[in-house]
Each structure stands twice: as C-alpha cells, then as structure tokens.
Amino acid sequence: MKKDVRSIINILDLSKEEIELLMDTADEIEKDPAAFSEVCRHKQLATLFFEPSTRTRLSFESAMLSLGGSVLGFSSANSSSASKGESVADTIEVVSNYADIIAMRHPREGAAYVASLHSNVPVVNAGDGGHFHPTQTMADLLTIRRKKGRIGDITVGICGDLKYGRTVHSLIDALQRYEGIRYVLISPEELRLPEYMIEKLASEGAEYTETRDLETAIPDLDVLYMTRIQKERFLDEAEYERLKNSYVLTEEKLDAAKPDLCIMHPLPRVNEISVRVDEDERACYFYQTYCGKQMRMALIMYLLGLTKEDERAHRPAGKVPAKMLEGSARCANPACISVTEQELPQSFEAVDEAAGLYRCVYCDEIIKIK
Ligand code: CP
Question: Helix, strand, or coil here: 344?
Fold first, then answer.
C-alpha cells in the first residue's frame, strides 16, 4: 500500500492560491536566501532524467543544495537500468526508498503520473514528452508577475511549436485561472495547439485567436512566449526540416512591439530568437531561469511540509470522479507511456459518454470508443 503523498504532475495539481503562495515564498528567498539555507538539511532529492536537460535538472539540484539538502540521480536513461529494460514503475519503487522527493523527466507522456502511482515520496514532473512541464510554468508565472506586476489582464502571444511544446500546454492551463488573459496562438497549421486544448479554451470562454503571422501579431502583445520547434517529437524528419525555421524573432521585428513587452522562451533556443535580441531590455528568457530556481526551492520545501502549516490550506478542489473505462480499448497516442510500460492497464475517463469520448488518464489523448 502506497503512502498518500502529494505529487505534482500537472500545474493544475496546485491551486491558484498555492501557486501564489509559492511565488511569495520565491520572493522571500530572493530577498534573504541565507534564511533558507538549512531548511532541507538531511533531506535528499533524486533527479531521474531519462531525457536530456540543462536548466530543469540543474536548477532542481541547485535548489536542493541551496536549501541545505543533498541530491542523487542520473542524467540519461543510458546510465540507468532503464537501458536494460527496467520499467518506470520498478525504478520508482526502488528510488522512493532512497530519496525524500523525486524530480523526473521522461520522453513518454504520462510517465510522471505512472511514477506517482508507485512512489512513497512526492514526484514532480520535470517534463513528460510533449505533455506537461509544471515547474517551467511556475518559473514563467513568476517572471510575468515580477516583470509585468500582475498576471491578469494581458495579451499573451505564444509562438512556434504549440503542438509538442509541453511548456505551452502547462502555461495555458495556469493562465486560464487568471482574469483577462487574451491569447494569440501563432504557429504553422501543422503545429497548432492540440485539439483537446483548443476545445478546453473554447469551452471555458477564453479569448483567443490563431494566426500563422508573428509580425502582424507583435504590436498588440504584452508577453511574447517563443518556443523551439521540438525536433525530438517529430515522427517525420522531413516535416521537421520543412518547419524548423518557421519563426525567427529579430531586432527588426521588435521595432513594432510595445516598449514593455516581456519576451520569454523556456529555452533551449536553437534559432527562434536572434542572439542580438539578448541585448534588448525586453528579453526575459535568461531571467526565467533565475526565477525557476527560486520557484523550485519553494516547491521542494512545500512538498516536504517544511513551510508554515497555514500556507498548506489551499489545495485544489477535488474533481467529481468521472466514469472510468478499463479494458481492451487502446490509447491512440504513440508517445503515451501505456504503449511501452509493461502491465500498465489501459485506463480512460469519460469526457462525453453519450458521444463515446474518453480521455486517456496517462496522456490526455481523447479517443472515441463505440
Ligand atoms: N526549459 C527546459 O525545460 O530546459 P531544459 O530542457 O534544459 O531542462
């Protein structure tokens, strides 16, 4: 029997109030980092990275070290027993005996959720395929709050690979909780936001437009969130080659932008933002990485129960359980963890039972079951 521990798989696993408290904690950390330097003494963070990372892994590790804790883990699947065929479930059964908290990145969508089902300690999703990346969103929200002074009442342009860009999906989920967010979704047709997210925006009455054209969109934006075309997610290399240079933000294109535009990018960048833009004071993408460490420090403390009790009172409201379906239906998403993980039951939650629409509990793919 697993312990009842809190994991963060999706940004929506944190309530808006909790995220605001974490941002407040991040501000306190920025003001007085020494006050937090012993908070996680004798605590251990495991970073299990089955996929490459610079920022997320190192900022998690730096965060834990700055809190006085220690770190263990691996930075590629090849240096773990995954290379011998060990499942995510078994890996987590083992590592949750060694660490107090786990940050995990995996190329399969839903992998972090599977990990949470097998863990005795909190699991934080550090990116699961093209699905979610909640701690990047925490960094993004803190950046917006600090740079714009607010999160609501802004026009946010999101440009590039909106299909496979996991940071985009988590960011939109988070922004949907704020009033007055206007989205301009800028992408080639092939890399539009997934249908399930468009439907969610529409059903929630969000104000959004879709366009292919970055230049005409720029003048209206308060935030421009550029993204990399996610080469590693393409099934067809020729399609990647055709789309890879869809958008390049240059100094010239920024001439028409607002003077207080906040230019963001989760990084790594390939060529979506000219390096000459780095000198523009509106460039916030390296500042995002600075915010990311403070937010991860705040999150580690929070999940380990090392923040004040009164700050732990605002969990998201529980969902009304939907009708579940387990059996012979298969998830249609080739990147879903249920395709590769041994013994994992196919499991679907009803979205619209009358229409036969169900959501894969691992990767959110909507499938039709007759
Ligand atoms: N933003 C982000 O996830 O970067 P890394 O892939 O380097 O962790």
Answer: coil
In ligand 1, the atom with minimum distance to the C-alpha of 127 is: 3
Which of 187, 193, 195, 147 has its CA nearest to residue 172?
A: 193
Query: How do residues 255-270 score in pLDDT, each as one tens digit?
Result: 999 999 999 999 999 9
310, pLDDT greater than 60: no
Residue ranges lining ligand 1, Cβ < 6 Å: 53-56, 127, 133, 136, 266-268
Q: Tell me yes or no: is domain 135-289 CATH 3.40.50.1370.
A: yes
Instruction: Write down the pLDDT at residue 1.
Output: 60
Q: Which of 25, 43, 47, 56 is catalytic?
A: 56
What residue spans define the domains of the chain? 11-133+290-303, 135-289, 324-368
The average pLDDT across 13-37 equals: 95
Alpha-carbon distances of 231 from 84, 130, 159, rounded to whole Å? 26, 11, 16
Is residue 173 within 8 Å of residue 11, measured between CB atoms?
yes
CA–CA dist 19, 17 (Å, integer): 5
Q: What is the pLDDT of residues 322-367, one digit of tens each?
A: 777 777 788 999 999 999 987 888 999 998 889 988 999 999 988 8
Query: H or E segment at 286?
Result: helix 285-303
Report the nearest atom of ligand 1 relative to the CA of 105. Answer: 8
3-class secondary-structure state, position 181: strand
Which homologous superfamily does the CATH classification assign to the domain defined by 11-133+290-303?
Aspartate/ornithine carbamoyltransferase (3.40.50.1370)
- As a whole number of angstroms, the distance between CA 310 and CA 47 comes to 29
DSSP reduced 3-state for 368: strand
Quick count: other Cβ atoms within 10 Å of Cβ 260?
A: 11
Q: Distance between the two ends of the chain, CA-based, in angstroms?
A: 35
How many C-beta atoms lie closer than 10 Å to residue 128's C-beta? 31
Question: Which of 62, 267, 295 to probe ligand 1 with, by most ligand atoms within 8 A of CB?
Answer: 267
Q: What's the CATH code, domain 324-368?
A: 2.30.30.20
Q: How far is the CA of 355 from the centre of ligand 1 (A)?
A: 38
